[in-house]
Amino acid sequence: MSGASDYALGYSTEEERRLTLQAKMFEGLTEDVLRRAGIGAGMNVLDIGCGPGDVSFLAARLVGPSGSVVGVDRGEESTETARRRAKSLGIANVAFATADVSGFEADKPFDAVIGRLILLYLPDPSKTLHRLSAHLRPGGVMAFQEMDMSTFLPPGSPALMTRALTWVYDAFGAAGAQREMGPQLPDIFINAGLPRPEMVAGQTVTSASDPATYAMVAGLARSLLPVMERAKIATAEEVGVDTLAERLRSEAIEKGQSVAYWPRMVGAWARKT
Prior knowledge:
- With 273 residues, this protein is an alpha/beta fold.
- It has helices spanning 13-37, 54-63, 76-89, 125-133, 159-174, 181-191, 211-230, 236-239, 241-254; strands at 44-48, 68-73, 94-98, 110-116, 136-148, 198-202, 205-207, 259-261, 264-271.
- It has a seven-stranded mixed sheet, sandwiched between helices. Strands 7-8 form a two-stranded antiparallel ribbon.
């Protein structure tokens, strides 16, 4: 990312907690993409836009003690949190650097460059991947996972959930995020000079009674609230973020919902020729 306004959700303790919760929801889908891409024992991996470290930790587990992971993020608070978490979890094969992806340099090539939910915030993702491919050894893997937010609002969603997800969707758009980045990944890879990627898509389904489901939606609303107010999408009073999660859950129980569907996640990977 190249500027303080590029990350629509901002940097805060609440956003770090939301990212950690998000990581738990999407971990299985992300691990599937990384395994399909060939991330495995002994590899040296670069994770861009690492945030508080969850994808880096997942990659570190896949590459094992003979491999290594470097996580890079522009937010110093995020990389500091990631270092603390790595130490508390006893993960020794991962390191974190605070740097803008457009200016990151490394003194050795990597076997893989990975990222999750990062390209949607970049002004020119193809240019970024082209630049990052210089840090890949020949035959190295480029693997990214992005969301298709056109699937953000499942049919038949109750009224409050419909409003909340519409606020969030509109706020991402107002902030300049590419909301349907997942389906764009083939063109992004090809325009970066990479081969046409292999791809897979998956969707997380959670129990409608699970509080984490509504904590995620409320967390998104909280982080995006400044954007919503600036763009006149919704006011703080309309959103009522402090009680939003419980109101969403109560509505789902009242309407007899059994499951909640999360947006489709699209993974793409290719090897540098």
